[in-house]
Design goal:
Length: about 260
Amino acid sequence: MRSRTANRSGIVIRRRVTPAGDIIVTLLTPQGKLKAVARGGVRGPLASRLNLFHHVGVQIYQGPHNDLASVQQAILEGALPKLAEPERYAFAHLMAEFADALFQEGEFSDQAFELFAGALRGLSHQPDPEWVALVLSHKLLALAGFVLNTGHCARCRAPHPAHPDPLGGQLLCGACSSLPAYQGEALEFLRSVVRQTVRASMEGPVPPEQRPALWKALERYVTVHIGNVRSWRQLLPMAAPAFASPGPVADAVVDTQAP
Ligand SMILES: [Zn+2]
């Protein structure tokens, strides 16, 4: 493999500082995920540019060996300062962890990039970031091929399941689940979110008191199908009804053309 320099543009979805002062970043770009190191970056101007959720243009150098590409330069192309607000940050962090877990390095994924960028914009601007996170989590999962089977009970295959699956986050029939059925809006959301546009889902938010059940199911589903996502720990207490923001979203706009 020959050495080369390349320019890429993407959003920082993961950032780690090593004891040596290097910054290791993972970017989600329209050409896929990219991992690179800014050597000694923590002491230079790159430190503030290579921040989580920043949209950056980077010049990277890939050495002749198969080691990590290094960041030579970085310019800030866009930032969403409101994502630093605690109630938005936790959701943005969860989306970034999802994107990191769901999409592979080198895998071309223009659509994933657009969806993720739209999710961050929505989380930054919308009055109801929790709802943005619920809708876009399901959309990201679906794009990566993880789709909840809402047609049949996950255990006995009976049609029209409406009860939560406390183990796998799927849907169960009344005979297979010991939990009460989802309420109407939450059930309708689970059945429609994948085929519906993001805009349509945003216009019909599930009432906050029904959301904890949706978060619990999502957490179980992701844990079983994808693996451990650390952000749940800071997020799940927020999903309690007392915290959920009841703000109106009828006039809200998500800047994404996601399917
Ligand atoms: Zn069943």
